[in-house]
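ok trying again, last paste got cut off:
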Amino acid sequence: MIINKLISGTAIVFQPANLELYKQNKPEIQGMKLSNITLKLFSISIFFSISQIGFAQKLELSFHEAVQKALEENIQLKTEKNQLIVNKAEQAQSKAQFLPDVSAYAQFRRQNGNQFIPQEAKLVNTTTQDFYPQISANMTLFNAFRNVNGLKMANHNLDAQQFRVKRTEQDIIYNVALQYLTVLFDKELIRIAEDNIESQSTILERIKGFVEVGEIFIGDQYNQESQIKSLELALVEAINTMENDKSLLGQTLMLEPLLEFDITTPQWAFATQLVETYQLKDLYQTALGNRNDLKELNSLKQSSEYQNKMAKSGYYPTLEAFYSYDSYYNNSATDPSTGEKVSFQDQIRVNNPNKTLGLRLRIPIFSNYLNRTNVITSRIQMENAQLNIKNQEQAIYMDVQTALQNYKAAVARYESAQAQFDAAKIAMETQTARYELGNATIIDVTTTTNAFIQSEVDMAQAKYRLMFQKILLEYQTGTLDINTLPEK
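nice, full thing came through this time. structure:
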């Protein structure tokens, strides 16, 4: 009898003579078998995990998708929107001040001991139970327009918070645009480095051919190899910079830490941006009419004016109307004519109902300087609000002026970079052709190549800076909107 076992891919043959030895070592062999099965299952699970990772698609985000993601996930924006809910609740409460306030009251008592019984006109040591319900309403008829001013103040506070939410959204779009364009610039630097490595490698192959036939010195080959190594180092640094900038963008978008993502390059036309001309006066007037932070301050100023009016209303009398309905029940109450106890329903609805209707006038005489302090405080807040507006208008002018100057400089820089790029490209091609003919040295080729690489980097930087300055100009004038930005 032969028993074969496959353990770790090796066949083990057991002869009948060795059967007793197998029985003695059976637990160890079974343990080996179990360990082998566990190892195989673990390997299979790793295989499927790697397969899933391999097949998982990297998240690709366009500029609009990135901005939308940030608007949905930004913590500060969520906080501002939560405050907006509070302002809406305060507005609803201010409207409700014009309605009467209604309240209900009920009291149940149980008393033990000597008690005066009105029906018997004597003290009796007994236990009684009574019940006292009441419903009342109060309504302000006049309070020096305090409710009216309170509603207007709540409306302006709500408007101010809405403007703050809009400005926060513009802040988010601005920050995402800056980080998005930074990553695009990093990707452009990587492309430039890769293209130059490829072109310089082609030149290196030509140089090697010249060296083999003895037309040029081998030192030119070493110089070219050194040039390629420098480009490879620049490529590594560019990749590291891009990964760091992508991590910052992912943090702004509130993406999962381990989520792989990439961004697409929008095909925005630069020609339309270059031909646009702006006047500082027009931009400033546009900013005054559109900047949501200035609108917020204006709304807060108007709110403080109505708060000041509310404080002054404390000097005036207030007139209120009130109404109440109450009744009473006592379990010891009896009918004098019959001597029988009166039921709960008869006492509450027939015998003991009491209705009260009246007016209440309150005239302030001395409030321990409370009204005076409120008026002074609200007046100072109103003056500070006006100062904030004036200061913000000055800041907006400086913002718009700086943004316009930077935009004009970006246009000029882009035009200059384009011209330098064209010239450097021609110079590099000329020196390369002369070198192949033996009329130039490798130093000449290296110099013009480095100049071309730098001009290419400068042009990419100028291009993305121009894109950013256009967005910055819209941000400073308050016209930045996700719906106005080009999608492609």
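cool. The mean pLDDT is 84. The chain is about 65% helix and 15% strand.
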